[in-house]
Amino acid sequence: EGESDSKWKQLGDLVIANADFELAKECLGKAKDHAALLLLYSCQGDRAGIQNLAKEAASDGKTNIAFLCNFLLGELEECLNLLCETNRVPEAAFLARTYLPSQVTRMVQLWRDDLKDLNPRAAESLADPAQYPNLFPDFDYGLVAEHVAEGKRKAARPASDYPSVAGSLSEDLIESAKTSGMDPTDVPTKTAPAPAAADPNDGGADKAAAEAKAKAEAEKAKADAAKAKAEAEAKAKAEA
User: Fold this and answer.
1) Virtual CA dihedral for 141, 145, 147, 148, nearest 10 degrees?
2) Which of 13, 42, 132, 198 pairs with 219 at a CA distance of 20 to 30 A?
3) How many CA atoms lie within 13 A of 138 on its CB side?
């Protein structure tokens, strides 16, 4: 089988050199050359191809390729799932902190659970925005930015739109959230993203309990952030 894959890859390289990209996709698919397929699909802007590759790479255990595919598609929740499923919880926590602040509390708890047997002191030192809002300035506006950006990041747009949206790449999302007119307390509570492939008969009760816990933690985090903001504003007024 390895020799067959190698021959398909060689054939794929040859047809790419002759610009026969449709045949190249077929050859690289048979060779299971996920990296080459990702390069080809991304160069062509083939969204459907990247979607199919994300599923195939995940099922074949090619997590890095599956992650990149989902990231290009704006499927950040699926990226988070992939990191958690492969026990890369610290990376998942940093991903959530950057792109999915609504999931930070859940990721911090998973990280603590993963670390506590190895180093209990280090596990306790991990700060949760819900418990220490003073260490996470403007975290509540990060929730607003996440909510506003959610629809945009999953929208399919042609490459020809790039000149009109290039400026948004340097946009300060926190400042935009502050001037959006949306109050952080108005942001809908998000529950934990569900894994893409799950057996409905396997651990249904545990899954429901985990989702309920995640929802409660997210609601608490939002309430604590709002409380911290109110206290900071009151303190500022008193000092003025």
Assistant:
1) 130
2) 198
3) 13
Q: Which of 96, 121, 119 is nearest to 107 (CA)?
A: 96
Do the Cβ atoms of 161 and 153 come closer than 8 Å? Answer: no
What is the rounded distance in angstroms from the CA atom of residue 96 to the CA atom of residue 144?
A: 14
Q: Name the 3-class secondary structure at 45.
A: coil
Helical ranges in 60-202 per DSSP H: 63-73, 76-85, 89-99, 104-115, 120-125, 139-153, 162-165, 173-178
**For the segment 171-214, what is each residue's pLDDT rounded down to a tens digit?**
888 888 888 888 877 777 765 555 444 444 444 445 455 555 55
Task: Write out pLDDT tens, residues 75-97.
Answer: 999 999 999 999 999 999 999 99
Q: What is the pTM of this model?
A: 0.72
